[in-house]
Amino acid sequence: MKPGFEKYIPFQPQKIVGRTWPDKVISKAPVWCSVDLRDGNQALVDPMNLDEKLEYFHTLVDIGVKEIEIGFPSASETEYEICRELIEGGHIPDDVTIQVLVQAREHLIKKTFEAIRGAKNVILHFYNSTSTLQRKVVFHMDCDGITKIATDAADLIYEMSRPAIESGMNLRFEYSPESFMGTEMDYAVEICQAVLEHLHATPEEKVILNLPTTVENCMPNQFADMLEYFCKKLPSRGCAVISLHPHNDRGCGVATAEMGLLAGADRVEATLFGNGERTGNVDMVTLAMNMYTQGVDPQLDFSGINKIKEMYERCTKMPVGDRQPYAGKLVFTAFSGSHQDAINKGTQYMKESGTEYWEIPYLPIDPADVGREYEPIIRINSQSGKGGAAYIMEHDFGFDLPKAMHPEFGSVVQRETDKVGREITPQRVYELFREEYLNVDSPYRMLKHTFAESTDREGHSHVTFWGTLRHTDTVFQVSGEGNGPIDAFFNAIKDEKMSHFTFLDYKSHAITDGSDSQGVAYILLQDQRSGKKFYGVGVSHNINLAPLRAILSAINRAKQAEE
Length: 563
Ligand code: KIV
Ligand code: ZN
What we know:
Layout: E1 31-34, H1 36-42, H2 50-63, E2 67-71, H3 77-88, E3 97-103, H4 106-115, E4 121-129, H5 132-139, H6 143-166, E5 170-178, H7 185-198, E6 207-213, H8 220-233, E7 240-246, H9 253-262, E8 267-270, H10 284-292, H11 305-316, H12 337-353, H13 386-397, H14 406-420, H15 426-438, E9 444-455, E10 461-471, E11 474-482, H16 485-498, E12 501-510, E13 519-527, E14 533-540, H17 545-562
Parallel strand pairs: 1-2, 1-8, 2-3, 3-4, 4-5, 5-6, 6-7, 7-8
Antiparallel strand pairs: 9-10, 10-11, 12-13, 13-14
This protein binds 3-methyl-2-oxobutanoic acid and zinc ion (ZN).
Zinc ion binds at residues 39, 212, 214, 245, 247, 277, 281.
């Protein structure tokens, strides 16, 4: 970096004695408030139109968000109309509270009261900026002047709210000392306490104090210190709901929210996928799912994340990144061989152990919990190893390859990915498997075959095999006996220049369910002359035939290797 950093003023951390937040854990969901339709919307290149806002609103309701900031109705006619349509169009369920934002200015407050007429549950959210910087460069006012803006607004709001409350509206208040993070904490306490008093807050009629990192300017632990200090010093803490409103300028919005909860906050204002001014607001999905993966019910439903993402991208015209936690296209995908291997082993472990917990390395969450169970977890490129190709063969095509075969097939796949220099599809993995193991009928090919089976007096079974084989252009007959089809076939081909192969291992299973089930056999042979081992694979509806095809496949592969 070129010099330039000297012009920045380092954040001055709040001194705090005996902080307690680092020893706490998040054990319950906060009250969630969505600010998508206000903070998120005001940051869009093209703000949402009525239809988009309505669709977005209904999605938030379906997710389970109970407090939704719908806009800034005094800011424009469009915002006002949208607020009226939500109320008059009957879109707001009885258990959902709409929140409207307004600056601490008289005419805007009056307009806002007009906009919320007829609504059942409302939070009226007003704000003014309190930071040292804003006081100096924007307002040219001292603290008393700034406090007066807030308390005058509080008086007006309290007075105007009486008739609305008497007419049955469940009206609550929220105050934001905007740019809280740049405000001296003792002054933040002073102005917030004054607002609580002017709004007649009580433990029964709490006022929400929303403490934003309007611009994120410090580390999450420093913010947590500020918050703990603020909560301890606020005389009427019992009359307030402490709310967070983290922005994400340093990329720490989620950590700030999490540590803020540890430090005493009760509520979080957030947006889906972190839309919002500049680098965005804190991401509600990540926060909620982080709780979920710690065994805490977030009280929000993200079980259909792809649908939510699709709605979000359409309405905001902004993409959700491929690496976005929980929602990004690639976040459940492993390309790297060692990750694939561990995922494979974890999946196996889950199946075999019957554990009730989610215990798969590299997958912090079960993709099914966010409705992503049908997406490929393992994808194959040149970084992938033996486990990945085997995983694809099992999950996409039903072939449960013997463990010892994984490295061999892995290198077949690796050769291909190195050759093409890009990702290959599961279908291509299957084609490689077929070319390498299933369609190997040269130099030997079985043209016809018959088995006869009998059981002797002791109950031992005897099988006789007769077959017609072709070796390049020569067709010949073979026959042999044994205690089973594999033994009989082996004995039959022993004298046909194949006696140097010995049988090492065998595995078989069905690959399709129901009556159409096919059997697959994996055979491992060793060429005694070279000591080399060769796998062969055979598939057939006839369970006797699959292993014979596998033997010929192994022998053909050995012969081809020789050539
Ligand atoms: O970021 C912020 O400070 C805000 C306030 C209006 C709450 O959006
Ligand atoms: Zn904001």
